[in-house]
Amino acid sequence: xxxxxxxxxxxxxxxxxxxxxxxxxxxxxxxxxxxxxxxxxxxxxxxxxxxxxxxxxxxxxxxxxxxxxxxxxxxxxxxxxxxxxxxxxxxxxxxxxxxxxxxxxxxxxxxxxxxxxxxxxxxxxxxxxxxxxxxxxxxxxxxxxxxxxxxxxxxxxxxxxxxxxxxxxxxxxxxxxxxxxxxxxxxxxxxxxxxxxxxxxxxxxxxxxxxxxxxxxxxxxxxxxxxxxxxxxxxxxxxxxxxxxxxxxxxxxxxxxxxxxxxxxxxxxxxxxxxxxxxxxxxxxxxxxxxxxxxxxxxxxxxxxxxxxxxxxxxxxxxxxxxxxxxxxxxxxxxxxxxxxxxxxxxxxxxxxxxxxxxxxxxxxxxxxxxxxxxxxxxxxxxxxxxxxxxxxxxxxxxxxxxxxxxxxxxxxxxxxxxxxxxxxxxxxxxxxxxxxxxxxxxxxxxxxxxxxxxxxxxxxxxxxxxxxxxxxxxxxxxxxxxxxxxxxxxxxxxxxxxxxxxxxxxxxxxxxxxxxxxxxxxxxxxxxxxxxxxxxxxxxxxxxxxxxxxxxxxxxxxxxxxxxxxxxxxxxxxxxxxxxxxxxxxxxxxxxxxxxxxxxxxxxxxxxxxxxxxxxxxxxxxx
Length: 624
Ligand code: ADP
What we know:
Blueprint: H1 3-7, E1 10-13, H2 16-27, H3 35-57, E2 70-75, E3 80-85, H4 92-100, H5 105-117, H6 122-127, E4 139-147, E5 155-160, E6 165-170, E7 177-184, H7 194-205, E8 212-214, E9 217-218, H8 235-245, E10 252-260, E11 266-273, E12 288-293, E13 296-299, E14 314-318, H9 328-331, H10 335-358, H11 360-380, H12 385-388, E15 395-396, H13 407-413, E16 420-425, H14 429-434, H15 438-443, E17 448-451, H16 455-463, E18 465-466, E19 469-473, H17 494-507, E20 513-518, E21 527-531, H18 538-546, E22 559-563, H19 568-579, H20 581-599, H21 608-619
Parallel strand pairs: 2-8, 12-14, 16-17, 16-19, 20-22
Antiparallel strand pairs: 1-6, 2-3, 3-7, 4-5, 4-7, 5-6, 8-9, 10-11, 11-14, 12-13, 15-17, 18-19, 21-22
Helix pairs in contact: 10-11, 11-16, 19-20, 20-21
The structure holds adenosine-5'-diphosphate.
C-alpha cells in the first residue's frame, strides 16, 4: 500500500443480513431506544475483560499501563454521546469481520423471528438485543475509533450512517481500545443530555465489572453480581444481569446462584433460558458459561467446564482456585476444570430436581423446551445418566393426554409383584392406545409409559434400569406377563393352534417372520407383531429412516407373530383353511400386514388395497 492509499477511506458494503437488520432498526418504531447504551457498554465491558485476560499471557501489549475503564461522555451542543473503553480494540480485519458481518447469535435469531412473523413489530424488536447495530436506532452517524492491543496495529476509524456501506480510514494517535462517537439524529438528541444518560447508565452500572465513568464522575463501585450475597440481589437485578452479561434476549426461566468451598472455591450464577434456539433451527449452541478467577475473565466459553449436554446454560463461574495464567489449550485437561465440571453438573441436576418439586409449572416449561438436552445427557454421559433419570417426564397409560409423569411416580403406583417398568414408543398417543400392544398390560392393570419421541428408545436402552427395576419395551417378544385375569372367550384347542401356527408360517413364508405362536397377551386383537430384535426396534428404525439411511431397506426387522387363540377371527381362519383356502390365505396375509402396520413397520400399505377389495368381495357375497 502506498502512502497515498493509506489515507484514502476504504468503502465496504455491509453483509446482506446486516443491511436487513439495519433497515429494520432504523425504520421500525422502537420503544426502548435507550438499550443501545446497554449494548455498547456491555461490548466495552467484554472488551476490557478480554484485555485483562490477554495481559496475563502476552508481554507485549500496546499501552500496557492504560487504566482499564469505560468512559461515557455527552456533549449536548454537538449532539453527541461518546462511549470509550481501553479494552482490546480491533484491527482492520477485525473491524470488517465484527462490524460488517453478523457475529451475534441474537441478531440472527432476530432476523429469523422477523421472517417467521412476516415483518417487524415493536414487540418483536423489544425482545432482542441487536448488539452494536442497535446504535443506528438513534444515530445519524457513528465513528468507531480504535487501536488494537497488538503493538503493530494502526489507529483506525470506522464510520457509517447505517445505510448500505461503511468506511475504514486511518486515524491519529488513538489510545488502545475503542472510542465510539455517536452523532445523534435530531429527534434523539435526548441521549446527549447528561441527566438522561446518567439515569440510564445507573441502571446498568451495577453489572459492569469494570469502572464506569460518566462525564468524569465514577458511577459504579466495581462489583460482580455473582460474588454478592443472594439476599442482597433482587429478581430484577438477576434478570438485568442475564441480559447484560450473557447477551441474552429472552427472559431467564430460572437461575441458580451458589457458592461452595469444598472441594473447590466456587461462586456461580447460572441461568436457564426460556428459549431453546437450537430447537428453533439455529444450529448447535455453544457453551455460554464464562469462567473467571476472582472477577478476571479466564475464558468466555471454556471447553470442558460443563458437559456438552448442558450447553444451553448461560452465566458465570468464578473460582479463586484457578491459576490465572491457565491457557485455553490446557484448560480442558486441567484437573481443576474437571473438578469444577463435576461439582457444577451435580448442582445443576440437583437444582432441576428441586425446581420440579418447588414449581412444577416452571419445570414443565423447562422440560417442554429442553428435554432433548436431558435425554442427550442420559445417552452420552454415563456418569450422570442415573442422576438424570428422575428428571425425565413421559405420558403414560394412566395419565391424561398431555399430562406427564415421572419414573418415581410410576414406581409408586407399581403393584408389589411388578418387577419391570414398561414402555411403548410411537409418534403419538393415539397410535399406542389403539394398537394391539397395550391391551395385554391394561388387562393386567400394568402401567405403560408412552414414549413419543424417536430418541426415547435410545434413552431407555442407555438407562437400562431405574432404581433396580428394568426398563422394558412392551412390544418386546420375550415378555411373560402371565395369564390375563379376565381372558374372555374360548381358546382354540392346543392341537389346532399348533397346526394353525405352522400353516401361517408356511403361508407367509418369504416374509420376515421369525416365529408364529399363540400368546396370552392379546385380549381384543387377533394378532400382534412383537419385536424379535431388541436393537432394531420400530422407533429405532424410524429414527434411522429419518436420518436418511434408506437404500434397499436392510433394516426391516423380523418379527414374532403372536396370535390370540380366543379371538373369533382366529377361530374362523382355522376353519377357513379347509373350507376356502384361497380366502384363508388372503386373510392370513392381511392380518400380517395389519400387525406390521400397528407395529409401525409397514412402509408401503398400498399393496394392501387390492387384497382388501378381494376380501370385501367375499364378505359381500362371495365370488360370482
Ligand atoms: P456481540 O457483542 O454480541 O458479539 P455486537 O454486534 O455487539 O455482537 O458486536 C460484534 C463484535 O464486535 C463483538 O463480538 C466484538 O468482537 C466487536 N466489538 C464490539 N464492540 C467492541 C469494543 N468496544 N471493543 C472491541 N471489540 C468490539
